[in-house]
Amino acid sequence: MRGNGLRTCASLCMKKNSICEQASCRLWVDYEEDFNCCLVSIYENGNMTLRQIGDRLGISFARVKQIETETLRKIRKSPLLND
User: Fold this and answer.
1) What is the pLDDT of residues 41-50, one digit of tens each?
2) CA-to-CA distance for 83 and 68, rounded, in angstroms?
3) Domain spans of the chain?
4) pLDDT of 11-35, one tens digit each?
5) What is the distance between the alpha carbons of residues 48 and 58, in angstroms, rounded to a whole number?
6) Is 0.70 surpassed by the pTM of this model?
7) What does the chain look like in DSSP terms, one character per residue?
């Protein structure tokens, strides 16, 4: 990672103003406006609404909310938090 919190590849895509072609990357998202990188999305936009996240992932904001709710439930039940 670089000083700005981005991976070298994300910084390079931004510098070259070109989308990332590495769909096998775990941070890749099919959203060309953010160079197909979720790190660039966060870097460029900061906090995002559920609707903005849904647009980037190609799902509804209601589905994003369902995923968020389930994830928070799992985190709360985690034994790591009970210690």
Assistant:
1) 888 889 999 9
2) 23
3) 1-47, 48-83
4) 878 888 888 888 888 888 888 888 8
5) 15
6) no
7) --TTS--HHHHHHHHHT-----TTSTTB-S-GGGTTBHHHHHHHH-S--HHHHHHHHTS-HHHHHHHHHHHHHHHHH-TTTT-
